[in-house]
Amino acid sequence: MVKKKISFRLNGELREFEIEPNEKLLELLRRIGYKGVKYGCLEGMCGSCTVIMNGKAIASCLLYAFQADGKEITTIEGVSAGFADGCNLPNEIQDEFIKEHALQCGYCTPGFIMSAKAMFDENPIPDDETIKIYTDGNRCRCTGYEKIWSALKNLSEKHKEKLRR
Predict the structure, then answer these.
(1) DSSP secondary structure of 1-29
(2) Among 43, 44, 56, 98, which is 20 to 30 Å from 137 by CA?
(3) Which pTM value belongs to this model?
(4) Total domains in the fold of the chain
(5) CATH of the domain at 16
(6) Do 87 and 73 sit in the same domain of this protein?
(7) DSSP sequence for 31-89
(8) Using one digit for the tens of pLDDT, what is the confidence trace for 111-146?
(9) What is the dihedral sign for C-alpha 139, 29, 42, 6?
(10) Nearest 5 degrees, angle CA 100-CA 29-CA 16?
(11) Domain check: are 57 and 121 in the same one?
């Protein structure tokens, strides 16, 4: 197969890649070291491979890598709140997940974080229904969702409180 060159902004940095014509974005991201993007169902149903493309949460297992050409892609590795003492600091969503114990095995967590980030970027004060809609494409086998939804509701309330001040 003839390889193709593409470029896109990955976690804020313009990058160029050589890809196979049938390579999925999920495969490319994992090949170059972004292991927070997980293999799951490979049918766009579980959310484990969720990334943000141009502000929208997408299933990277369904998108061919060439479709990302010229776009902006954010992975879980790109959402930290900064860097200190040699470590990435959790962003506010990750922090709330930790506080609410909204993760167990952690396999689905990056996808939930990415879906939540897209939601909060679009609507900083989502209601319960919006939270459920935005996380509908993410599946978790461990937590039962209640703690995940609780973490996201708490963050929505914190955003509401900030606006009141």
Answers:
(1) ---EEEEEEETTEEEEEEE-TT-BHHHHH
(2) 98
(3) 0.93
(4) 2
(5) 3.10.20.30
(6) no
(7) HTT-TTS----SSSSS-TTEEEETTEEEETTTSBGGGGTT-EEE-GGG--SEEETTEEE
(8) 999 999 999 999 999 999 999 999 999 998 887 889
(9) positive
(10) 130
(11) no
